[in-house]
Amino acid sequence: MAVVAVLLTSAGSATAARLITGKQIKNSSITSTDIKNGSLQRGDFRSSQLPAGPRGAQGPAGANGAPGPPGGNGTNGFGLIRYLQTANPFSDGESDIVVTVCPAGTFATGGAAWAADTATGATDHPEVITSDGIAYSDAGIGVGYFAGVNNVASGAVDVIVDAVCANASQVSSSVRGKARRARR
User: Fold this and answer.
1) For residues 109 and 102, is the Cβ–Cβ distance under 8 A?
2) What is the DSSP string of 123-135?
3) Higher pLDDT pick, 157 / 3
């Protein structure tokens, strides 16, 4: 029996002498195949390496913030709308562009163009107006209303161009392509 005890004792000390510590392991030398499944516990990981738990319930609403500073004074309503008109005479064979320009601080919102017989005033010469629409600045802002004129053989006519101009703090040019229309 003493012999068996000596053998067990010497076998146990031989095993203890062969244990490897963490300091003896080179970084990245142990892979997942070297680790027994289920042997790692939550305490073996940093909290940032663990999956998040279920989302918690929403907390109560916070207190209202302090009121902001008062805003500046705005304009009262839409403001001023102006209707302007330009009339230019055209003889047979003349062509040009007639523009009615809106005053500074206003923007074109629409208009109209037509040709009237110089002698009678009758508006019976639509063939003279080849195109009309809002005239735009390089920045895409409506600055007036225009009419393209080509008086081939309609006699003496007056081309009248009306512009509807409004003051506004902001004007969108998103309909720029739709504002011009050609007449044939």
Assistant:
1) no
2) ---GGGEEEEEEE
3) 157
